[in-house]
Amino acid sequence: MNVINDPFTWAGNLIAQWLSGFMPPVGVDVTMMVLRAGVLGVFALVMFMVMTWIERKGIARIQDRIGPNVAGPFGLLQPIADGVKALTKEDITPTNADRMVYNTAPILSAAAAMLVFAVIPFGPGLIGADINIGIFYILAVGGLGIIAILMAGWSSNNKYALLGAFRVVAQLVSYEVPHVLSIAAVVMLAGSMSMITIVEKQPVWFILVLPVSAIIVLLSGMAEIGRSPFDLLDAESEIIAGHHIEYSGMKFALFFLGEYVHAYAVSCMVAVLFLGGWSGPNIFGLTVPYLWFFIKSILVFNVMVWARGTLPRLRIDHLMAFNWKFLVPLSLANLVVVAAADRLAQAVGFAVGTWPWALVMLAFNLAMIAVALAMVGATGRRARRATESRAMPEAETHEEEAHGVDAERAPVAVGAH
Amino acid sequence: MTTLQVMFFFFSLITVAGGLYTVIARNLFHAALGLIVSLAGVAALYALLEASFLAAAQVAIYIGAIAILIIFAVMLTRGVTGKNPVKDWWTYTITAIVCLLLLVVLLTTLFRFDWPQTAQAAVPADSIARLGKSLVDPSLYVLPFEVASVLLVAALIGSAYIARDKK
User: Fold this and answer.
1) Which candidate, A300, A276, A313, places its Cα nearest to that of A215?
2) Across A87-91, A125-129, A336-340, B151-155, least confident range
3) What's the gap in Å between the CA of A259 and the closest CA on chain B?
């Protein structure tokens, strides 16, 4: 049973035993550390292929296509075909590019995304390094990816690449604010920044306790990795491809890899913070934590694919307004409300982590969502009324009631007579 | 030499080399990248001292925010391929004099002060919780903490005032 529930620890112990036959203990430790890092890195690369396949199939289904279906069953070998294609492409460096920076940027981009996997817990003991600042470490290494994009945008000596890099700074630095503030609510309830402890503190999944945080973390996470609808940094129709416009062949593939590995890393992070990480039902002694974690992270990634397939790209000012005028105030309010609700629930006598406590938290969160949506709705209605009254000053007085009821159709009705 | 000492010298070397490159690089963008290498070296030194929170904060704040803002400022103020505009010997001379003076001050401090050495103490397991509590403890650091917050709010309001639409 143990072999099925945790094959990785089992295999690791076997290898360590075999190594200790002819190695000093220090050598065994170092070898096991290198091996663990290697397994995590290979896992990230394999997940890159799985993610591209899932995304292409998912987007294709949303758009009523079939998607990749030639290479292998269900097109499963398509990522390998893509990789071979990228390797055979000509490697082009622009004449006036800053060669050293230009060549370092894709490596840094891929490396920054893979660094995150060091602290992702795939099971009770299945973690690269259980450091006590786990989630903070993820936030910190996220900044390295921004630098890689800046380096690429600057060194390519291309105005579209530079524009893309400018957008990156504006977007990513802004969305970091609600991202961090919402994660702070999770850290507050879990009482720890260690990823293992955060999972262990979720007898009730935090998506039920902190739905507002969950939504904001997912949204700002999507913005941080620059995925549609937040993909302004490489908007094809505006700045062609942004920072990686000049890259070809394997260097472009490295950027692509960085993007997808980062997307999977964010999915893993959301699964750990809000979906209870590896925890799942115990079926006849089979706990299979790694499988539960895998399913949850893939589910989160599918939500991202779904959003990409259905939502149009935001305009840059809308993007910034959405962040600074909606997400940031909401996440600040969320932090205060969560802290107060947690104290209140504990004062009433509900212990942390129990269902009554979770229901109190959920009630406060739902109230917060209702208030936030009502405020956004009121602002939208006011703005719409203002534009309409400017466009049709004489019709405004006797049509006002109609506007309130059916603001969407009102301008058409006014224009008709 | 222990492994720890080897690592300390390795990361110190990276820090100093990055700092040196920041100063002598002719290209402002390269200088900023050298600064990032130097800051990363400092973060690694913090990690060696088991100050993991400080190391992550160094990366998140200095590399993730300040270095990026510096690069952004460089990209906005110079041309894309802008070279370091400082080329006259006068600036270099003044810089060299100031640096030498600073070096003299640092070296005299280093050799004249008797640095007390105590045995290495174990880092408490709840060091982050202690850090958090001491930041909001009235008898410890709540005042500097709040003053820093006020400073940040002032900077925020100031930048919003400068950036607002002039009507």
Assistant:
1) A300
2) A125-129
3) 18
Among the partner-chain residues A101, A132, A144, the one whose CB lies closest to the CB of B52 is A132
Question: Could you tell me if the ipTM is greater than 0.90?
Answer: no
Q: Which residues of A touch B71 (CB under 8 A)?
A: 147, 150, 154
Report the alpha-carbon distance of residue B119 to residue B132 in Å, rounded: 26
Closest CA to A113 of A258, A227, A226, A218: A258
CA A138: distance to chain centroid? 12
Do the chains contact at A157 and B80, CB–CB below 8 Å? Answer: yes
Q: Where are the beta strands (DSSP E) in chain B?
A: none
Please, are residues A196 and A127 in contact by the beta-carbon 8 Å criterion? yes
Rounded to a whole number of angstroms, the distance from the CA of B155 to the nearest CA of chain A is: 16
Just give the CATH number of B1-85: 1.20.120.1200
Cβ-defined contact of A140 to B56 (cutoff 8 Å): yes
> 3-state SS of chain A: helix, strand, coil percent to 5?
75, 0, 25
Q: Which of A163, A161, A303 is nearest to A221 (CA)?
A: A303
CA pair distance A261, A303, nearest whole angstrom: 16
Q: Is the pLDDT of residue A174 over 80?
A: yes
- The count of structural domains within chain A is 1
| β-bridge partners, A286 | A283
Candidates A240, A251, A226, A231; CA nearest to A155 is A251
- Ranges of each domain in chain B: 1-85, 126-167
Asked if B52 and A133 come within 8 Å (Cβ–Cβ), the reply is yes
- Residue of chain A nearest B68, judged by CA positions: A147
Mean pLDDT of A294-303: 90
B57, B72, B128 ranked by CB distance to A169: nearest: B72
Radius of gyration of chain A (CA): 25
- What is d(CA B25, CA B3) in angstroms, rounded to the nearest whole number? 32
Whether B60 sits inside 8 A of A166 (CB atoms) is: no
Inspect the interface and report whether the beta carbons of A169 and B57 lie closer than 8 Å. Answer: no
Q: Is the minimum CB–CB distance between A157 and chain B shorter than 8 Å?
A: yes
Which of B29, B81, B128 faces A96 most closely, judged by CB atoms? B81
Cβ–Cβ gap B63/A147 under 8 Å: yes
CA dist., res. A181 & res. A130, Å (int):
23
A24 is a domain residue: no
Range of the domain at A366: 81-384
CA-based nearest distance B57→chain A, Å: 7
Query: How does pLDDT run across A6-25, given as a tens digit for each residue?
Result: 777 778 888 888 888 887 87
Whether residue A256 contacts residue A189, with contact meaning beta carbons closer than 8 Å, is answered with no
* DSSP single-letter state for residue A242: G
Nearest to residue A203, comparing CAs of A351, A4, A373? A351
Asked whether the beta carbons of B136 and B142 are under 8 A apart, the reply is yes
Q: Are the Cβ atoms of A98 and B29 closer than 8 angstroms?
A: yes
Distance CA A400, CA A389 (A): 9
Contact status, residue A224 vs residue A179, Cβ threshold 8 Å = yes
What pLDDT was estimated at residue A68?
Answer: 83
Q: Is there a domain that residue A190 lies in?
A: yes
For residue A112, which of A276, A299, A262, A298 has the smallest C-alpha distance? A262
User: Does residue A60 lie in a domain region?
Assistant: no
Contact at CB, B52 and A193, closer than 8 angstroms: no
